[in-house]
Amino acid sequence: MNGIVHIIIVDYFKAPRVVESVRLLEEQDLKGIKITITIIDNSCCADNFAVLKGVKGCNVEVVESPRNIGYVAAVNFAAKRVPDADAILLLNPDILIKDRGVLYGLYSNFEDPACYIVGPAQINDDGSMPRIVRGYPSLFALASKRTVLGKTSWGAKSVSKYLLDDFDLSRRQAVPWIQSSCVLIRKSYWDAVGGLNKKYYLFMADIEICKKAYEYGGEVIYDPRCTVFADGRRCSEGGLLAIIKSRPLRIHLIDALKYYVG
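-> structure tokens emitted (262 positions)
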């Protein structure tokens, strides 16, 4: 298969990891695929940007955002910079693609015209495997996950259904949605839906674009034949009380409300 994969990395104070990520991307066995990389620095920090400017690569553009415009706006901005791409890889700044065959392996899923979005298995630096594949969340499930409601039988069942506790991580399969930490999206589908929904700032847009894939006649595929590595640090972790101290959690709450009430 031939084509252009546009890799988008939105960085927020993880410049050294991004430098390593790009180095590994340059070593991928592409088998005819061409890649171009856009890095958006949302850190608003001269020191972080100085490290990113040291990134070495043939087709790498590093853009310094004058302010933190949020993940969704940064991704949509970056996507417009390579209009002739055949696919877009959304890649979190902590993700490392160590296996040289991963990018081509993911892209080869597009031989099936029904595949609109595909994501790999993930392993954290500590060896654990994060729950990157989930069911569509109900408001009750999200509330139960972060409060004592999760201790009730109804709450526990709701959370289990949302987290797909019985999910088989070893099998390639169609799934409801995959977290956008590392997902490859068919560009024709991306253009059809207009990218990520700009009403969101940081969260929920990945759920929506995956859900819409089915509405547009496609599928979202989890492919464990490909594996990437993450640092395991999630800015949305924490319970209800953590919302008081954590800006990302407050944003998560706001974006979730937008998801449910429009």
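The chain has two domains: 3-122+171-261, 132-166.
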